What we know:
Layout: E1 26-28, H1 32-48, H2 56-79, H3 83-109, H4 117-124, H5 126-129, H6 134-145, H7 179-187, H8 190-205, E2 207-208, E3 211-212, H9 218-240, H10 245-271, E4 287-291, H11 292-298, E5 302-303, H12 308-313, H13 320-325, H14 334-348, E6 354-355, H15 358-373
Parallel strand pairs: 1-4, 5-6
Antiparallel strand pairs: 2-3
Amino acid sequence: MMQTQTIRxxxxxxxxxEIKHNQKLKFGKSSDFQIELRRRVDDLFQSxxxxxxxxxxxxxxxxxxxxxxxxxxxxxxxxxxxWWQSLPLSILLGLVMAAIGFNIQHDGGHQAxxxxxxxxxxxxxxxxxxxxxxxxxxxxxxxxxxxxxNITSYDTDLDIGIxxxxxxxxxxxxxxxxxxxxxxxxxxxxxxxxxxxxxFHNVLIGRIxxxxxxxxxxxxxxxxxxxxxIFLTLAFGIPLLFHPLWLVLAFYGxxxxxxxxxxxxxxxxxxxxxxxxxxxxxxxxxQIDSAWAIHQVETTVNFSRDNWLMTWLLGGLNFQVEHxxxxxxxxxxxxxxxxxxxxxxxxxxxxYMQHRSFWGGIASHFRWLRQMGMG
Length: 375
C-alpha cells in the first residue's frame, strides 16, 4: 500500500497564501484510482512470474558499478601521472558515483532492492560511501519529498534558499531574473555542500530545512560518523599521501561537480518543469484536493522512456511517475510498469506527463526557471 503518514512542518510563511505553522496535511479520500492501479500492477507481476525485489539483474549491476568505482578511484589516485589522464578518470568517477546513487542506494533506501531488511540497509549505505548520509536522506527524501512532492514549504527538495525560486509560491527576489542561467553552475556544487556542511549541520540542529527530525542515535549515529570518516579518508586522506593539496582539491571539486550536476538535473526534470503541478494546502484545513496517488502523478513528469541506456544508468529515474507510485518495486521493472500506469491514468482521466527526450526535459526546466524568475 502507498504511504499515507503525515509529518509536521515548522516552516516560515513562504507564499502570499498563508501556510500555518505545524499544520498537518490531508489528501483527498478517493482511492479508486490507487486501488485499481495496484491491482493491475499485481496482475502484471503474477502473470509474468516476476519478483518485485531480489532481481538477479540488479545484483549484477551492483557488482559492475562498485567494481567500476574501485577501479576508477584506484587509477585516479595511484596510476594517473598527468592531467590528461586524470581529467577523464575524474569525470568518469563522478558519473559512476551518480550511478551508484541512482541505482544501488536509491533502491536500497526505498526497500526496493531486496525482501531482506539488512540487504536494503547495506545497499542504502552506499550513499555514505559517496559522501552523503543514508540517515538524513531517509528523512529528506522518503518523507519530506516523496509524500509531499511539489507542495511548497513541505517538500524540502524545492527549497534551495535565496539563490533560486522553483515554485510560484516562493518569495521572488531580483536576482532570480537570471536563475535560468546561473543555477546550472550551482547545481554542480550541491554535493560538496551536503558532503562537507549540510549533513553535519542538520544533525547538530536536529532540522532539515525548517522541519525538525530525530537526530541519529545508536547504530544510526555510528553509521553516520563512520560513513563520513570513510568518505573523507577516500576523498582527501589517501590522495594527500600521493599528491599535493591543490591537485587533490581540484580533482575532488571536478568529480563532485559532475556528481552534483547529474543528481540535481535528474530531480529537476521530474518535478520542476512546466507541466508539473505545484501546490500549497488550503490555509484553513491543510487539505490537498487530490487523492495521494493522483497527486503523485500530477506533480511528476517522466522523460526518455524509450532510451534503454539512460534507463540503465539512471536507475529508472526517468520513470519518476512509476517510482513515486511504487517506490518499493525494483527499478528494473519500471518500463513494464509504466505501460500499466499510463493506461490506468487514461482510463481514469488522470494526466500522465512525459518528455520524449532528455533534452526536451532540459528545455522545459530552463523555461520554468525563466518563468519563475520573472516574478
